[in-house]
Amino acid sequence: MLKNILHTRPSFVLLLLSVTAVICIILFMTLGVKGQWDFALPLRAGKIAALILVAFCIGISAVVFQTISHNRILTPGIMGFDALYILIETLALFVFGLNISGHIATSGMFVLEVAVMTGFACLLFYSLFSGGVRSLHLILLAGIVFGLMFRSLSAFMIRIIDPNEFVILQDRLFASFNQVNTSLLVISIVTVALTSMIGWRLRHQYDVLSLGRDIAVNLGVPYKRTLMLTLVLISVFVSVSTALVGPVLFLGLLVSNLAYTLTGSDKHRYTLPAAVLLGVVFLVGGQTLLERVFELTTPLSVAIEFIGGLLFIYLVTRKGRV
Amino acid sequence: MLIHPGSNPLTSSYRLLLLPTIFLLALSLISISIGVGDFSFSHLWADNDDADVWQLLVISRLPRTLALILSGMTLAVAGLIMQMLVRNRFVEPSTAGTIESATLGILLVTLIAPDTPVFIKMLVAGAFSMMGTLVFMALLSRVPLRSPYLVPLIGLVLGGVVLACTTFVAYRFDLVQSLHAWTIGDFSGVLQGRYELLWIGLLLALLACFAADRFTVAGMGEAFTTNLGLNHRALTLFGLLVVSGISATVVITSGNIPFLGLIVPNIVSLLFGDNMRQSIPWVALLGGTFVLLCDIIGRLIYYPYEIPIGTVVGVIGSILFLTILFGRRNRA
């Protein structure tokens, strides 16, 4: 009897979330247009496509990252992944100057950066996933400090960069949810679609992976290969979302943990879509609330940082009790 | 550090202090002599009546160097005290929400009463940083099973939450740019008349020196302290007062210098152990030296422009922090 209810609950939750997400999207598209439809709709469509793409990237990468690290407090954002992206972007501009980063080369640059970042990420986090007994909190702390270091290094180079070049960089890095960089949208969608195929092919292995490394290896999952492919996937997703809206430290943590709690399930076929849908609700709904209801100019990321930070403190203090 | 069994360890280590003191003085001379304005020490005593050189020294160079040394010394001591009180090696004002709370305090008082004298602003900032630190300690007391790495983690995230509040307020009133200027440590604006609050920080640090032995005892834990007849709660409050005061003076003068209070005490502890009375002068001297060094790097690397010290320390400090983090683990 109880088993039966639990079995149907995730699908019910998914349905509910989808409906909420669709309502948020409709509200975002229609509220306060005042008749100028042909002007407002294309503008908002670009924005909403970017927001949904970001929700997709952050939701999937957070859940998958937590699966391969066997922990629910770790997310790419907390581990300094997006700070790393900003550092690489700054470094590229710093070393090569304007010639390479003009808008003709944007897509090429993007691919190159993602490649470099993946390499870095694999190096940096390989030790974390390749087993051995390690303190989770040590890894978390190291991740946050790495993030601080990356940010300081970027700030350091930004000081030295030519002001003209900096304007371009600022345009690409510190775009908030208010001004989503739609020029990157097409290449981002293509990249994410291609990368998602990796995730789709690996989808059956993630449920096994979440049982732990040893069990997964015993059950025949090619652990190392899956891990590397997944790191590639995460790096691409994080690069895309950072390129589009800038770093959001706690959104991944927020949506993944809510997804687990709401669906009450560990199965990726429930948690992944739930996390993405929650991301859409948070980003689109939050943006609608901020822009149309409260008429605030505050970036949504500030609000997410606040709520996500509180949730994080709650999670770790509760974890300590166990 | 090898200490011969016959000699008194205290006096021998005090004698060793001569070396870092000389080093600090040498760095101060370098710090005074670099900059865009034409300055050399020989001009001071040259026979021309060149009043400009003296003016440059008294109004700009000397205050800056003093401010650097004072901030470095006091922040390092504040870090040491916090580490004793929380009994965790990885805690300091910027990993416990203290600095962020002070910033919030400054922002609010600037908004509500812009004409408030700086001293009152500092008091408000101090009160806020005290509250923030108390919240941090209250959170810690709710975590019975303490992993040493969990403590700074909570502090860092708490700081992030407070910072989010601050950013929110700053956005509403178009003060984000000023906020950036406050939060990144920068001494380029320090002139005569704009750094003197730091002496209050020094005073607080000196007070802490007198209570050094008590803090060492407090570092052994509450039960142990009470057994020795000391009031643990009062001691903790006094320590927090000192730390909050120091944080407020530094933030209001120059902004945040991350990791300083963490790295210096850790290095000193590797050298001398955890006797606070013995290590406090070392911590202060090395703190001043570290800040001076980072500032000189920031001023020379892109001469005649400057890299703010907060950024330089952010890079060097996080690398050192990671080294300490992983180094400790390997030895354990």
TrEMBL record, chain B:
Membership in a protein family: Belongs to the binding-protein-dependent transport system permease family. FecCD subfamily.
Keyword Oxidoreductase in record: no
GO biological process, one term: siderophore-iron import into cell
Organism of derivation: Cellvibrio polysaccharolyticus
Membrane spanning residue stretches: 21-46, 66-86, 93-113, 119-140, 149-173, 193-213, 234-251, 257-273, 280-301, 307-327
Name of the protein described by the UniProt record: ABC transporter permease
Main location: membrane
Coiled coil: none
Range of residues in the leader sequence: none
Organism lineage: Bacteria, Pseudomonadati, Pseudomonadota, Gammaproteobacteria, Cellvibrionales
Membrane topology: Multi-pass membrane protein
Location of the protein in the cell: Cell membrane
UniProt keyword list: Cell membrane, Membrane, Transmembrane, Transmembrane helix, Transport
One Gene Ontology term of the molecular function aspect: transmembrane transporter activity
Cellular compartments per GO CC: plasma membrane
Gene3D superfamilies attached to this UniProt entry: ABC transporter involved in vitamin B12 uptake, BtuC
